[in-house]
Design goal:
58 residues, mainly alpha
């Protein structure tokens, strides 16, 4: 999941900077994409922690 999110982030950022002519929109969407990337990273950390607990208790 993390790798796919990274690819989507990179692709979305590229598309945003190439196609969007409004600097305010670029800044706004850039911040949204960065926030979503951080959310995916946090989910990955939670999944790793849950996996560790499951493995420890099995």
């Amino acid at each position: 999941m993390e790798e796919e999110a990274d690819r989507l982030f990179t692709s979305s950022m590229h598309t945003l900077h190439v196609t969007c002519g409004d600097p305010i929109a670029v800044i706004t969407w850039r911040e949204i994409y960065i926030y979503l990337e951080k959310c995916v990273d946090a989910c990955e950390h939670v999944a790793d922690a849950v996996e560790g607990v499951v493995m420890k208790n099995s």
